[in-house]
Specification:
By secondary structure, the chain is an alpha+beta fold. Helices cover about 35% and strands about 20% of the residues. The protein is built from 15 helices and 16 strands. The strands form three sheets. Strands 1-5-6-11-10-9-7-8 form an eight-stranded mixed beta sheet, with helices on both faces. It has a five-stranded mixed beta sheet with strand order 13-12-14-15-16, with helices on both faces. Strands 2-4-3 form a three-stranded antiparallel beta sheet. α12 links the parallel β12 and β13. The radius of gyration is 28 Å and the shape is elongated. The chain starts with 17 loop residues before the first helix and ends with a helix. The chain binds adenosine monophosphate (AMP).
C-alpha cells in the first residue's frame, strides 16, 4: 500500500499553537475581568446561523454577505452560514431569549471565531477570532462614551496602548438619506473612474463606494463629500456630547470624516481602532464598531437602540505586549530508569499533578544520561530519578538541573501528596 499523503488545513484556516494561545488567554482573561467592571456578562453563541440573519443585519449589498460568507444549504435545505460577525447573533439571542423585556437594557460580550472568505494574507484569515461587546437599549451619548472608554482602558491594560481610536458620525435615518443622495450625485459625476462594482453600489447602496478597495476608486472617494457635513441637528449634538465625555476622561481619539464601516447597520457613532505598530502591515485595523439603532427592529424586535464593538484577537495578539519567548517548562520530570520503575513514577507524577505541580514523566528504557538530556530539553527545573537503588530504598534521587546539585535518595515516595509537593517546591526554589 502506498504511504498516505498528509492532509493540510484549508486555505485561510490556521492553527494557533501554545505560544500564541498563551497570549490569547491573557488577552481574553483581561477582557473578562475588565468588561465585567463595566457591567457586561458573557454570551456564548452558535457559530452557525440562518443566512437570512446576516443578509438582513449586515446587509445584502455588503462585501461580507455578497462575497465572503461561508453559506450553504443544510441537508434539510435550510440556508445556513458560518457567522461572519457576532452582532447579528447577539441581537437575535437578545430577542429570542426575552432579554428585550424588562427595561430593554442588556450588556453582553462574546469571544469566539468568525468566518469570512476574504483573500488570506498576514493578519487576515478566513477563520479569525473576535472579542466583542454589545450594549442594547441605550440611546444616550454616555453609552457611546462608556464603550469607547472601555476599549481604551482595555487596550492600555493589554499593552496595546499604541493603537489609535478613529471616530466619526454617520448620521441617522433622518440625515443619512440626504448624505446618500449627495454621494450618489458625486459618484455619478465620476462614473468613468469607478469600478463596475461601484457602478452597482451607486444604484443600490452608494455608501459602499467609500470602502471599495480598488485603488482607482479610493483615489476618487478621497474627494467625496463626508457624512459630517450632512448631519442633522440631533446627530450633530449626539456626536458633540460623545466627544465631550471622551475629552472629560482624556480619551484620545482622532475624528476621521472618511471612516465608514463595512456593515450597513451603523448609524451615528462609528469608530475603528488602528495600529501602526510593526507586524500588522496592511491589515492595521485591530477593531471597530459603532451604533446600530435600527438593527433590533430590522431583526423583528421593537425599536431598541444599540451599539457595540469587536476587536480582532489574532491581530491584537500581534500588537499587544509581546508574549514571553517560551512558556515555562515543567517543575520536574520524573525519569524511570527501568521498566519496573514506570508504575511508581506514574504514581508520583499523579500525586504531584493532583497538588497542582506541572510535572512530566518519561518512558523507561534509556540511560540516565539520555533521560537527563530529555529533562533539560523540556526545560525542567528538577529531574526525579527512579532506579533500582531508589526503588529498594523507597526514595527518589532529585537533581536540580539549574544548580546541578544532586540529592541522593532524598525524596520519600511514601510521603503524603502535600508533603511531596512542598518538598519539590522548596527544592526547585533552592
Ligand atoms: P469588523 O467586524 O470587520 O469590524 O472587524 C473587526 C475586527 O476584526 C477587525 O478590526 C480585525 O481586527 C478583525 N478582523 C476582521 N476580519 C478579519 C480577518 N479576515 N482576519 C483577521 N482579523 C479580522
Amino acid at each position: 500500500m502506498s504511504k498516505p499523503a498528509p492532509i493540510a488545513a484549508i486555505r485561510g484556516f490556521r492553527d494557533v499553537l501554545p505560544d500564541e494561545t498563551r497570549r490569547w488567554e491573557a488577552l481574553v482573561g483581561a477582557a473578562r475581568a475588565m468588561f465585567g467592571t463595566y457591567g457586561f456578562g458573557e454570551i456564548e453563541l452558535p457559530v452557525l446561523e440562518r443566512s437570512e440573519l446576516f443578509a438582513r443585519a449586515v446587509g445584502e449589498t455588503t462585501d461580507i454577505v455578497e462575497k465572503e460568507m461561508f453559506a450553504f444549504r443544510d441537508r434539510d435545505d435550510t440556508s445556513v452560514a458560518l457567522r461572519p460577525e457576532a452582532t447579528a447573533g447577539v441581537v437575535r439571542a437578545y430577542l429570542q431569549n426575552g432579554l428585550v423585556h424588562d427595561d430593554r437594557q442588556a450588556r453582553l460580550f462574546y469571544v469566539g471565531p468568525m468566518f469570512r472568505r476574504e483573500r488570506p494574507q498576514r493578519g487576515r484569515y478566513r477563520q479569525f477570532h473576535q472579542i466583542g461587546a454589545e450594549m442594547l437599549g441605550r440611546e444616550d451619548p454616555l453609552a457611546d462614551a462608556e464603550l469607547l472608554l472601555l476599549i481604551r482602558r482595555y487596550l492600555d491594560r493589554v499593552g496595546a496602548g499604541g493603537a489609535r481610536l478613529e471616530l466619526n458620525s454617520l448620521g441617522d435615518a433622518t440625515c443619512r438619506p440626504v448624505y446618500r443622495e449627495r454621494l450618489r450625485e458625486f459618484g455619478t459625476a465620476h462614473l468613468a473612474g469607478l469600478c463596475p462594482d461601484c457602478h452597482r453600489r451607486l444604484e443600490r447602496n452608494p455608501l459602499r463606494i467609500l470602502d471599495c478597495k480598488v485603488p482607482g476608486c479610493r483615489a476618487i472617494v478621497e474627494r467625496a463629500p463626508v457624512a459630517r457635513d450632512s448631519l442633522c441637528a440631533p446627530c450633530a449634538e449626539h456626536f458633540a456630547a460623545v466627544r465631550a465625555l471622551l475629552d472629560q476622561e482624556r480619551v484620545a481619539y482622532h475624528v476621521n470624516p472618511r471612516l465608514v464601516r463595512g456593515l450597513d447597520y451603523y448609524v451615528r457613532t462609528a469608530f475603528e481602532i488602528v495600529s501602526d505598530g510593526e507586524g500588522l502591515g496592511a491589515q492595521n485595523a485591530v477593531g471597530g464598531g459603532g451604533r446600530y439603532d435600527g438593527l433590533v427592529a430590522m431583526l423583528g424586535g421593537p425599536d431598541v437602540p444599540g451599539l457595540g464593538f469587536a476587536l480582532g484577537l489574532d491581530r491584537l495578539a500581534m500588537v499587544a505586549a509581546p508574549p514571553a519567548a517560551e512558556g515555562p517548562g515543567p517543575l520536574a520530570v520524573i525519569l524511570p530508569l527501568e521498566t519496573r520503575a514506570v508504575a511508581p513514577a506514574f504514581r508520583l507524577a499523579t500525586r504531584l499533578r493532583d497538588e497542582g505541580l506541572p510535572v512530566g514523566v518519561e518512558p523507561a528504557g534509556r540511560s540516565l544520561k539520555a533521560l537527563l538530556g530529555v529533562a533539560s530539553k523540556r526545560r525542567a527545573r528538577l529531574a526525579v530519578i527512579l532506579g533500582a537503588d531508589e526503588l529498594a530504598a523507597g526514595r527518589a534521587t532529585v537533581r536540580n538541573l539549574v544548580s546541578s546539585a544532586d540529592r541522593r535518595q532524598a525524596l520519600d515516595l511514601d510521603a503524603s501528596g502535600p508533603e511531596l509537593a512542598r518538598w519539590m517546591r522548596d527544592e526547585a526554589a533552592a
